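Onboarding guide, step 5: your first structure request.
Type a short instruction followed by the sequence, for example:

Predict the 3D structure of this protein.
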Amino acid sequence: MPREAVPQRDRVGLGLRLRTERKARQLTLKELSVRSGVALSTLSKMELGQSSVGYEKVAAVAQALALDVGLLFAGPAAAPASGQALAVSGEDEGPLYRSDHYEYRMLATAFPGKRMTPLRTRIAARRRDEFSDFIGHPGQEFVMVLAGQVRIEFETGELIELKKHESAYFDSGVGHIYLSVGPRDAELVIVMA
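The system replies with C-alpha cells like these:
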C-alpha cells in the first residue's frame, strides 16, 4: 500500500460532512472536542480538509455526534428499498480512507442503521515507533486476517500474532496498534461494534 495522505477531495468531503453534522446539533468545535476527546485544532483542520487523521479520531467524533462512522466517510446511504435487509459490497466498492499506517475500505455502507462498522483494511505499519501512542476507542473489535500476517500490540503489554484465516476479538477500549509482519502488507477484515 502506498503511504499517501487521504486525497484532498476525500478530506474535504469528510470535513464538510463533519461540519454539517456538528452544526445540525448546534455544537461548537470546543464542545465537540470535549465530547470526542479530539483536540480542537485537529477538529478545525478536519473540517477544513487540511488534516489526514486516523480512523480512531473519525470514529471518536462520529460517536460523540451519535453517528454511524460511515456517514462521515461516505455521506448518507441511499434509502433502502422497502423491507431491504441486505447490503452487498464489491471488491472496490465503498469509501476508501488512508492514513500513514492503515488503509480502510468501508463495507456495507448502504445498510441502514448499522450496529457494526465493517472494514477491509491493509496494514502498512511495521514498527511500534511509527505510532505516537496506542489507539483506543469505545466498543469491541473483531479481526480476521485475509492475507499476510499481523501483530496486534496492546497498551497492556500483551501482543498477539495472527496469520491467514486466524482471528481475534477484543475490547477496543484497550489501546492497540496493528503491525504487518514480513515484507507484505497484511490484509484484514475488521468489524467494530
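Each response can be followed by summary notes, for example: The longest strand covers residues 140-147.
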